[in-house]
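An instance noted here:
***
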Amino acid sequence: MDPTLKLLVFLILVLANICPIKSDFRHCEKVVKNWAFSSLQERVKEDNEHTLRDLLFFLHVPRTGGRTYFHCFLKRLYSNAQECPRSYDKLRFDPSKQECRLLATHDDYSMMSKLPREKTSVVTILRNPVDRIFSTYEFSIEVAARFLVHPNLTSATKMVGRLRPGATGVSTLDIWPWKYLVPWMREDLFARRDARKLMGSIDIKRNDPYNMEEMVMPLQEYINDPRAHELIHNGETFQVAGLTNNSYFVESHEVRRCVQKHKILGEHVLEVAKKRLDDMLYVGLTEDHRESATMFANVVGAQVISQALTENSSMEGAGNSKSEQGSSRSESEPDNDDHQDSNADHNADETGSTEDLKEKKETMSVGKLMEAYEGCISSLRKTQSRRRKASLKRISPANFSKEDRSRVSEVVTEQIRSLNHLDLELYKYAQEIFAKQHKHVVEKLSSTDDLESMFNNPGGITMWKFLWLAMCIVFLALVFLFVNARRRMSKVKI
């Protein structure tokens, strides 16, 4: 073939490959920018962003320690009757039709499209992205390893199928993203166990559990799998922005695809995620655990307690004013209980728990809430530790620890950082928000403590007594002067 003709054919092929890429980028740029613009336009900015609204939406990012907040804070602040139905479950319902006060879920920010936006406060916790990837990997394997008690994968899968229809609780296999990650790891663990049986006894000399391919999927293989790209990497940003594969937004899949294919477009999603954080009532950090918990108790817990006390007072006042009317009504009109029969026991339980919680809130304070939290988290951690040890025994010697994490090669760690560049930027921004919130709470507590010390401290009491005595002396002096002046005036007239 003529050299000139060859060159022409080559240029045509190159242009044919470049044009679709450019065309796709232009399409993606338009899709992402349009979504970002509409998302920023729908922001609701309240007069005081630190004020708790009617509904609290706890946007629980996986592996950030949110479970302790749910069990040790929120379950003490809200009754079962106040929780939105199926929290932490397959949350496919319209909460706007439910009279609930607490929504706790792994769902992403797109859930706000189902909520009364102007009446909803959002709280969340973020974690250092590298640590979160490690923790996600470990937890996926930990839960999957529980199924190794079965002789084979078929048996384990059938057991899960039998348990689900009659189960009353919430299984990890029902919760995003574990409903995708755990079955993936479960299948992998059984495949590796079967391979070991075929090979006979294996002497595992490596002491790096993150690279022990005879027992578990190596971490580097895990983070490079398409499922990790879809569900884990930049997961905090996508969840806060509302773009996970569990999103309610119609355009979420296409936006996520475009951002994953064209890295530069991620900046638009990051900007939306940052604005979402700006509008939240509270943003905590896993690494600053103690400070985050204290701030949550003071920012969120104090307001929930205050709201409950205000509502109780209002209800008691309304009940007293309508007591006569209620009595005459009950005597003259029959009760209609037909529609309540099927839910009688459930309602009784909810009523009981609500009454118990009301009594607790009447005596609850931020200090007592923190005391209860400390006891609860200690117990919860012990339970989690026991389950973790029992589970990881089945894949020993592939046990995970913080020391083991530090031995992972810098190549793998750097790859995790690169794959989670949006999360790293969002985490830095969350740290800035946290610092501002922390400063605000400290200033508020300092001013409150100063006022309380005036009344409660011995020195404060002395000072107030001195001021009161001085005011009394001044008042008596004025009275004395006034009386003398009147007497002089009366003498002059005489």
